[in-house]
Amino acid sequence: VTPDVHPRRRERQVTLENTDSDIGFCGWLLVGLSLLLVLLTLPLSIWMCIKIVKEYERAIIFRLGRILRGGAKGPGLFFVVPCTDSFINVDMRTITFDIPPQEVLTKDSVTVSVDGVVYYRVQNATLAVANITNADAATRLLAQTTLRNVLGTKNLAEILSDREEIAHSMQSSLDDATDDWGIKVERVEIKDVKLPLQLQRAMAAEAEASREARAKVIAAEGEMNASRALKEASLVIAESPSALQLRYLQTLNTIAAEKNSTIIFPLPLEMMQGLIKH
């Protein structure tokens, strides 16, 4: 926010809240006649003069079309003069609305549909009434255009991965734009990013191909490690001929434990040589 925004807003607010002294002689005459009518019709007229605003509301009183000195009234009781005064209630609670899905062309020429949600509240009731015709409708339209403008500067990868940064950028832009309306944008969230069906299929195929490539690399590394281990085992067995016989017997034991059946296997001649000698 630029340094002169808040002083300008305060100056505008002071100007709006201190204009009832300019209603002129005719204006004061009408106000006096209205007060006299109230006094003559007491106590029935008191019910027309007393108004109540709730804790979360503020009332902007207009006297002969000008905002009454002091600005917003409430919460609680306040008095109006019949015939010359009118008032508008302003809700000060946080308001939430959904941004309809917006078709956006990203920086890398991909069309995506993005929606979001905005939280805002009226921070200054006087400015919200005097500076804008419909603050809620204006904020909704501005949120839609801001969403398209912000996403138009991002590529698809940034939109999918940097939602928090995009939401913060939108909040800052909206807050600056609605400052003169007396509105404070508290939070902006990106709800969903919908991609075209063809792009979804292409991204799924790319991800599957990437996973298959990683699987093949891992399998190749496993085979390489296994071949190295077999090579080392063969060197150990070559150094000791009896180790080969022990390995052979261990293999037979494993087969007998896993398969409950009769197995016929040839007996190595190396084992028979000792029996033949005897």
From TrEMBL:
Gene3D superfamilies: 6.10.250.2090, Band 7 domain. The keyword Membrane applies. It is found in: Membrane. It comes from the Eukaryota. Residues 48-207 form the Band domain. InterPro entries: Band-7_stomatin-like, Band_7, Band_7/SPFH_dom_sf, Band_7/stomatin-like_CS, Stomatin_HflK_fam. The chain crosses the membrane at residues 28-50. Keywords: Membrane, Transmembrane, Transmembrane helix. One of its GO terms (cellular component) is plasma membrane. Its main location: membrane. Belongs to the band 7/mec-2 family. This is Band 7 domain-containing protein. It comes from Neolamprologus brichardi.
